[in-house]
Amino acid sequence: MTTNQVSQAPAISPLAIRERTGSISTAEIISVLKGEITGVHIKQGFSSEVAEEITANFVGNAGLKERKDGVPGQYVGASHYRKDAVTYFAESENASPFVDALFHNLVDPVRGLFDALKRELHDQGIDLRLARSEHGKANICRGLSWCGSGTYSLEPHDDVAQVLCAGNDYELSAVAKNTVAALNFYPSMAAEGGNLRLWSHKPTVADRKSQGVETTGYPYSPAYLAAVPYREFRLKAGDIAVIDGGFIHGVTGQSGNGKRRLVLNSFFGFARPDLVLWWT
Ligand SMILES: O=C(O)CCC(=O)C(=O)O
Ligand SMILES: [Fe+2]
């Protein structure tokens, strides 16, 4: 092997993962935010009745759309991925009633977590709020049903490139130098697969350039990841995951009972030592 090849092998960063059954704690979320741990998987983190109702509200949602940005899936809500701030915040405002409709007359578990985290951070002198601009504000989450049909239903990627390259008109681009945390609620899962796979590698800008994914962080090739160890969250409906989105992650292929896999996803991170922003 030449020196050149050695220098391009992905650097291994150890994963620190907590997995348990119960309710998620704000302390664990803050540990991910601060980069102290890589991820938390909470089994049965919210009620199956609420999970079923959210799933029905997604399937029957008047704002349900097909993604047309090269990532196969259906969604309700807005994604900042590959969009300038004007477009993203306008789409967020337009989608807001449809995101509300996911929760209809339920007590919204995502809002519950946001409010609890906001109280906890407030006690530490830190503000938590939705990202915003003169064109509107972000939604609390987006609903996504991945439908890639190969080894992965969502290809391996990182969530930082899209933030790093968001542009100066986004207040959230300041978060890219800190941990970009991703929060996932899983209201519905297919019978088999659909696991969240997390690789022991946190790509740098140079790594992304070498892989041709500098601005998107998506998708990393099987060859690049071949020698990188990984862990998998074996997800069930009602589970919650919080991960450091800087580590490469993806969703394994799924099959089974015809049930669709649904995730409610949000991103958040420190824009300043006294400000955490939240967006989708
Ligand atoms: O669906 C999942 O489990 C992961 C979602 C994800 O990684 C993303 O939306 O960036
Ligand atoms: Fe992601």
Explain what this protein looks like in three dimensions:
This protein has 280 residues and is of the alpha+beta class. It has one domain (41-279): Jelly Rolls, CATH 2.60.120. 26% of the residues lie in helices and 29% in strands. Strand 3 (65-66) and strand 4 (73-76) form a beta hairpin. Helix 2 (26-33) packs across helix 5 (109-123). It is globular. The site of 2-oxoglutaric acid has 10 residues, from strand 10, strand 15 and strand 17.
**Strand element count:** 18
Low-confidence stretches: 1-7
Name the helicity range.
25-40%
CATH class group: Mainly Beta
Indicate the proportion of strand residues.
Answer: 25-35%
How big is the Rg? Answer: 18 Å
Mean pLDDT: 94
Query: What is the name of the CATH architecture?
Result: Sandwich
Bound ligands, named by name, code or SMILES: 2-oxoglutaric acid, fe (ii) ion
Q: What is the H/E order? A: HEHEHEEHHEEEEEHEEEHHEEEEEE
Number of helices: 8
For this structure, the CATH topology is Jelly Rolls
Main beta sheet: strand number and arrangement? 10 strands, mixed
SS content category? alpha+beta
Distance between the termini: 42 Å
Choose one word for the global shape: globular
Number of structural units classed as domains: 1
